[in-house]
Design a protein that fits this description.
With 433 residues, the chain is of the alpha+beta class. 13% of the residues lie in helices and 28% in strands. Strands 2, 3, 5, 6, 7, 8 and 9 form a 7-stranded antiparallel sheet that branches. Strands 11-12-15-22 form a 4-stranded antiparallel sheet, with no helix packed on it. The chain has a 4-stranded mixed sheet with strand order 20-19-18-21. It starts with 6 loop residues before the first helix and ends with a strand.
Amino acid sequence: MARKLVPGLVTALALLVSFSAPARADFTACNQARAPIFVSIAYEEKDKGLVSLGWWELQREACEVLITGSLQGRKIWTHTLGRNATGGWWIWWPNDPKVANIEKLCTTEPSPSNFMIYKNQIRGTCKDAGFVERPFRLASGGNAATHRINFWLGRPLVAEEERTQKPKERFWECDGCPEMVVMPTGEFTMGSPNDEPERRGEESPRHKVTIRQPFAVSKGAITRSQFQRFVDATGHAVGDKCDGNWAAKSGKSFKEPGFVQGGNDPAVCINFEDAKLYLVWLSKQSGKTYRLLSEAEWEYVARAGTETPFWWGLAVSPAQANYNGNIVFPNGAKGEFRQKTVSAYDVFKVNPWNLFIGQGNAAEWVEDCWNKSYENAPADGSAWSKGDCSAHVVRGGSWSSNPAVLRAAARASVQSSVRSNDVGFRVARTLTQ
């Protein structure tokens, strides 16, 4: 944590929350960007009107409680700045006339110092008073006692930033874009050894694959909320049939897969073409080219440097992944069969490379056409464009799967036109070397 303020602002904040301070009720800001950010907040003080105050300097990966006490009935606005690649300032939420609840308030220049400025005490413009006018966006409407806001760098990486990204670093390139995690380059052995429990013939022959091109992968599968943005923006038809329990069911779709989903659950009832059209839209939104992973890339990042059937070890239990818990993997444990997707962010742990992957929930489309073995498979990590391209590979297993399908080496094929309530996808992006 690195809040750099003089004591005066701490006193001001204490006065702000003196009206109510129940336990575990506060306003917290978290910096998920690649560099320090400066945060200013605003609120309406009884009898005095709107007041802006700051700055908090939040270091990378740091969270700071800016207000302690209940926010119920209290509106909070924020203005946040970060440095861009050329040394200028990047505004998280610029003054977009289409955005409601913008307040134009005075601040000082961002620095590790403090200010407290009442709007109704300014005569003339902010500039006339020796300040800078900035747009503050409503962050909390006062509907809950506590609120947490995450600041991501929602702009495309420039070439120099891409070249300097380190493995496991994260970025986010537009409003609604998925959180991306940078992967290391390297070499691994693809496929399963002959003595691995539950292995199948299509997982051979084992072969070396070398990943030389830097790339990033979405931390989790594309979520229901993220896919909904695409559907809302494009009017994409999601269909009215979705496979469930191996039979196509009318009236089921991404919007109604046959079980209740939250916004952070993986989007399902997605066929291969749906996924590809989402990628076209996402690439336009971000100005960068997003794509599906190749099958080799998927296994590489799912293993994350390990050689065991699962990245966490030799066996699996429903505490570690979402699958048919009535079926027991060798040396594993029986447990809950959830019979639906869950939010990986709320339930499971990330692998050594900071991904939610290989944990069932929803199987994931990859770019490769289906081939029954690895004979003549690419050795450079690229997608296999030869074979049966009426079907594509899916990886990772799902909430309905036998646990054997969750193994890093396990592979299956699905007809490209099929929408199934246990299949979704994640995305990748090639980075500049």
